[in-house]
Amino acid sequence: MINFVALDLETTTSVKSSICQIGITEVINGIPQESKSWLVQPEGNEYDFMNMFLT
Hints:
This protein is mainly beta. The chain contains 1 helix and 3 strands, in the order E-E-E-H. Strand 1 (4-11) and strand 2 (19-28) form a beta hairpin. 0% of the residues are buried.
C-alpha cells in the first residue's frame, strides 16, 4: 500500500490566495488516520457566496 499525506486548501473567492481553511489527513496502508483542519482569515480576505456555498 502507498502511504501519503493529503492536504486540502479551501478558498473563499476565485483568487487562489484567498484561503479560509486548511485540512490535512495522513493515509497509512490505505487507511485514513486522524484528520486536522484550521480556519484561517488572511487580512483583507473577502468571501464569495458561491464559494461559501460549495465549501
